[in-house]
Structure prediction request, 103 residues.
Amino acid sequence: AEFTRLLPRTGGRVALGWVLRDGDRFRFVFHAPVMRTFADDTDPMKILAWYRDWIEERLRQVPEQYMWVHRRFKGRPQGAPDRYRDLGRRLEKDEIEAFLAGR
Prediction:
């Protein structure tokens, strides 16, 4: 995470945002720049922990919105659906409901 090295050197601010699923559409939520500064000698892991905590706060508000970016479900039980088949195909309503229900 290069921003953890850049912030202390530049005194930069961070603009944080996130995307929420709204049916089959998405809504972007933008937050005002965070006015937190970090000393030049701040451990990058402390900055990363601060960022991780921000993400965790959002996830606790709407945990059903969380989606792994990496192929989290590549190892799955026999007979379980392949979550990565036809990634460009738009899901049908029943497929979305089944996925959100964890079936």
Q: What stands out?
A: The chain has a mean pLDDT of 78.
